[in-house]
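User: structure tokens for this one?
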Amino acid sequence: MSLSSGHPEIIDVEPGDKTGSNYGLAIDLGTTTVVAFLVDLTNGKILGKMSELNSQITYGEALVSRISYASTPEGLRRLQEKAVESINDLIDKLVSESKIRKEEITDICIGGNTVMNHLLAGIDTSYLAYVDGNKKVSRDPIIRKTKELGIHANPEAYIYCLPNVSRFLGGDAVGDVLASGMYDSEEISLLVDMGTNGEIIFGNNMWLMSCSCASGPAFEGGGIRFGMRAMRGGIEHVKINPETFEAEYTVIGNTRPRGICGSGIIDAAAEMFPVGLLDFTGKIVEGKAPLVSKGIDGLEYVLVPAEKTAIGRDIVITQRDMDYLMDSKGAACGAIITLMRKLKISIYDVKNVYLAGAFGAYTDLKNATKFGIFPEFPNAKIHPIGNGSIAGAYATLLSVEKRKKAEEIAKKMFYVDLLVDSMFADAYSESIYIPGSKEFFPTYGF
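Assistant:
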């Protein structure tokens, strides 16, 4: 349409009814992985799903590394470009596979942590590196047009990022709460999303209290000598014979093992303790030869001998691995205990435990409790909810009411910063034993 003459002149109108050609994207913009759903907005049907590594990862795996790199205008621009590149790669593949045009994508909703949301929108992240009482994280959703960011979609489409809560608790955690339904129940629930950065949320339809903890990548196989992500060749579950101390295990893909993933390392630790391979401080016990011997990282336990592996070497669990895992479990359990003490609730008050992400999907929850990653909750039902971040993005893509609910959740949530909380130091100290005190582990504790 031209307005140069002062009168509207129709240049071109695409023929036909286009109300049925209306598509949207739900995206989980993760620190490591980006996941996207292509959705038919006329009926809510998911037409395609794809994921790939976040292109930002070459500039640092940890959030603090990304914040540091983005401290200059050029660094921020580069990381924004990489986030957009990752999203566009997925869009290009999805539209090609589904045989639609990019211009038919008219709405995008994104669940991401606070740093990822800032970097995508080109917002300075420097203040997120420090505790600053005068600089609060906005709890309003970040909204941009696709043409502002260069996203491959209708240029007039809006991008809606689920609202953040604090420096280390963002729209992905709000998506978890939305997907769980805990905000609509009178019962007290706990939500745990345990990745490199763990999010812990207690609450019901009246209140929400949250924190985040630096649990590290150990629960995902990171930082472990033979650790790996949950993929073909990874040991995913372990049982240890109490008489011979030999391990029985299952491997993803039913092949010879190449390493051990997060669920496998948790199983192994939970099994090593009751048979005497570990003491209650997480130290490997000598005298269990020939499966325990000294290595470059202290004592090590042979999980799989070389002749049974795909790498031609023993797959071992070292004392250094165990020290790292104990620190991770201390941070996770300590964070949960800190919130419980602030709320003055006991393990018997919690009626639902929602577990988000790969941790909830693949971890043997009994072993996670036996090892002491989180307390026993005798009266609680366990609900693995999968990727709550993209589930929340999908819900807000289809419903304006869900967007309002997400914003209510973010504004209502009370956040405890464990980095400056004195109670956390005590709770952490209590939690670096296997499994922990009788107060929180009545079955397994001491």
